[in-house]
Amino acid sequence: PPKPPVLVRVKNAKKYFKLKKGIFTKNQQYVKAVDKVSFEIFKGETFGLVGESGSGKSTLGRVVIGLHEADEGEIYFEENEITALNKREFQKVRKEMQIIFQDPSGSLNPRMKVQELISEPFDVYTKMTKKEKEEKVSILLEKVGLGVEKKLSYPHELSGGQRQRVCIARAIALNPKFILADEAVSALDVSVQAQVINLLKDLQKELGLTYLFIAHGLNVVRYISDRVGVMYLGQLVEVAETEELFDHPLHPYSAALLSTNP
Ligand code: ADP
Ligand code: MG
Fold this sequence. Notes:
This protein is an alpha/beta fold. The protein has a domain at 1-96 and 209-262: P-loop containing nucleotide triphosphate hydrolases (Rossmann fold, 3-Layer(aba) Sandwich). 37% of the residues lie in helices and 25% in strands. The chain has helices at 57-64, 87-94, 104-107, 114-125, 130-143, 160-172, 190-207, 218-224, 242-247, 252-258; strands spanning 6-18, 30-42, 46-50, 72-77, 80-81, 97-100, 178-182, 210-214, 227-232, 235-241. The strands form two sheets. Strands 6-7-8-3-9-10 form a six-stranded mixed β-sheet, sandwiched between helices. Strand 9 (227-232) and strand 10 (235-241) form a beta hairpin. The longest helix has 18 residues, at 190-207. The model has no long low-confidence stretch (mean pLDDT 93). It binds adenosine-5'-diphosphate (ADP) and magnesium ion. Magnesium ion binds next to helix 1. This is ABC transporter ATP-binding protein. Belongs to the ABC transporter superfamily. Keywords: ATP-binding, Nucleotide-binding, Transport.
């Protein structure tokens, strides 16, 4: 079958972190977080990323959406090379790429009401009136399965799952094309994980979203992903369709990882 169009293309991406110089280390030390990684993400798919802690998943995700500048390599978003854009040009593209993190309480300002949190992107990127923003917030709350009355709540008054729904509402507020979900459900109870994942799936269909879905929970990744990439020591050692990978991992490291308990 013909391949679907590509939304994100990563070519030979490298990202090193400079370590602080210690008393006993004479030379500058580096951590190789992402080492010559190339892959693509098709429009409309969920690309799962697995690998043990410290293998470079988050760094790769951040390089893809420009939160980290790659040391080497190129990132293309819809055929635009974002690694070649200046700050202002990049801001426009950045709007199309959103991120949802692991710890919802940490990424939501505790002093802001749900309504303000969700309309924050409108304040930054649009000139919508107060009334327009309020209307849009109500629509978004409904989309993510939260009652409209929740708009006056503060983050600490919500459950973990509800807070993650607020994060999702904020992430889709500007109609992005791409969402990086980095351990987005990892901190939630298993039953709540399932609810949030089903919400992400429904929104994907409704809004035509593309996901890069990072998680250390193998079951979750297997359930949501169309294709999965395995990271090991900063390298992407295998990419395959989800069931193919779980049934017949080709790389020895994938085989070892996938045979461990979820
Ligand atoms: P994962 O998400 O798979 O757990 P990370 O991308 O967070 O892995 O980390 C990859 C490697 O890069 C690790 O060795 C980590 O310690 C290092 N690293 C990540 N972020 C930073 C940073 N901001 N400064 C220095 N080292 C970092
Ligand atoms: Mg991580």
